[in-house]
Each structure stands twice: as C-alpha cells, then as structure tokens.
Amino acid sequence: MPTRTATTSWTGGLMDGSGTVELTSSKAGSFDVSFPKRAAKDADGTTSPEELIAAAHASCYAMQLSHVLAEAGGTPQTLEVTANVTVDRQPAGGLNVTTSALTVRGSVDGLDAAGFLKAAETAKLGCPISKALAGVDITLDAALA
User: Which 3 state secondary structure label does DSSP give 78?
Assistant: First the structure.
C-alpha cells in the first residue's frame, strides 16, 4: 500500500499564528488552520486536526462496512457515515482527542436490521482508522435507513 502525505505550512505562534494544510498526495485541496478557530464553537471556514480525523474515520469506516456487508451476503446501495470527533482539555493541561462518535444509516439489500448491526459493529473493530484511534472512545449508532 502507498504512503499518503499531507503538509502544513505554519506562521507565527499558537494564538496569533495560522497555517494551511495541503492534501499533498491527492492534490485534493488546501485548507486553512488556526488554533483560535480550532478551539472556537464556529470554525469560520477553517479546518482542524479533529475535523481531518473525523473525515478519515468516516471514509475509512464506510469502506470497511461496505466490505463487511458484502462478506455477510448484503449488497450496500448507500451508506451515510458521520464521525463526530471531540477534543477536550485535559486536567494536567493540553488537549486530547477523547471520542469519535460514528453514525451510519444504510440501504442494504439482502440483510435485515440485525445483520446490518452485526456488520456495523464488525466494521468498527476492523476499520484501520478505528485501530489507529485505539485510545479514543469510539461509539456507534447504526441503523438501516
């Protein structure tokens, strides 16, 4: 498997600085980053490491689930996956990613709700990004649409 690369260019300090993260391998785009906006309720057009983790988790999980569904005899028609990644301040200082809440709604031929839920749980455990987030509480809300 190939290595994928992203590059961030940063100028200034933590509170007054800003940067741009570029999806270097895919050339899919460049996105502004800023700590004050990262910590604010409104991201105001900037991304954050947590949003990028959420994107990685949602897309990886969708791929893994489509594979597990097929192995279970189902044919996925559509999967809508959302990952909500939370970062919290730690008592000893600093920040830590604490949760990734996955929500999936699917339209799948050949499986009932119980079969879909079993596949969804299996995919959560097998998803490479879930494995990379081993120290994070990962929750799952899965249902057929």
Answer: strand
The Cα–Cα gap between 75 and 71 comes to 9
Of the candidates 68, 81, 52, 59, the residue with the CA atom closest to the CA atom of residue 140: 81
Instruction: Please calculate the CA angle 5-31-63 and round it to the nearest 5 degrees.
Output: 55
Q: Give the CATH architecture of domain 49-144.
A: 2-Layer Sandwich (3.30)
Q: Report which DSSP code applies to 47.
A: B
Flag whether the pTM goes above 0.85.
yes
- Give tens-digit pLDDT for 91-120: 999 999 999 999 999 999 999 999 999 999
CA Rg value for the chain: 17
Which parts of 19-96 fold into alpha helices (H)? 35-39, 49-71
